[in-house]
């Protein structure tokens, strides 16, 4: 995608630590020790602590964010997924049936990284699910135009949180903005919430462009986040989990996304959309964190 735009960019600090492990699904951590510090006593304290943890995540990565939370009295579990762009994305037309997940770390690099974490706010009897993601891109300038050779494209991508029907509930059903968190290029998709989850819009093109041109080398955007505060629902069970799914789009228009469990994220309202759902790796493993990973052990 080419855009004739002002060549003056405000460069952001780019996190360049590229994880080249299995570009499918891998458990970063599942065992959580009992935290020594007291967990937040109010929702305001919880929100402030999560904000501080995000800064740690942006500067040092999602795993450092989790360690920060554990050290501040919030047990947290985390899972990681990495995906490659589909080959069809580079073509003008034609449907691709090839599996697009990159599963050979010696042969390819990931283009999208998504980390799902699940935290237990014990004193509040609440939970917090957060997805941190970033995108690898190549954005160069030539002939008076900037060219997105690889990376985000219109329309928006979708990021979903899912759970079994009525097993979880947002903490403020009458005020979804109080229950959700979004970043500079990630917004809650108004109207996507139901009893099985909710979705966010990821403005992936702007996420890449606003980070600035890359010259002739691939760069990663800074990590951005989406999150939701939860409480136990009427059908809650002790082995419950929260899952996440990601949909990358590169053609057409998308007005809304929708989510369901266990299917994941899908297009709610759209037209002529070309997209790929990255909910699972080739083995069918879902980006999922269980409640046992969010309780002190």
Quick tags:
40% strand; globular; 297 residues; mainly beta; six-stranded antiparallel β-sheet; ten-stranded antiparallel β-sheet
* Number of beta-strand segments: 16
Which class best fits the helix and strand makeup? mainly beta
Q: Can you tell me the number of structural domains?
A: 1
Mean pLDDT: 80
What's the total helix number? 4
Main sheet summary: 10 strands, antiparallel
Helix-strand string: EEHHEEEEEEHEEEHEEEEE
Low-pLDDT segments? 2-36, 92-108
Question: Helical residue percent?
Answer: 10-25%
Instruction: Compute the CA-based radius of gyration.
Output: 19 Å
Query: Which band does the percent of strand residues land in?
Result: 35-45%
Structural account:
With 297 residues, the chain is mostly beta strands. The protein has one domain (2-294). 13% of the residues lie in helices and 40% in strands. It contains four helices and 16 strands. Strands 1, 2, 3, 4, 5, 6, 8, 9, 12 and 13 form a ten-stranded antiparallel beta sheet that branches. Strand 10 and strand 11 form a beta hairpin. Helix 1 packs antiparallel against helix 2. It is globular, with a radius of gyration of 19 Å.
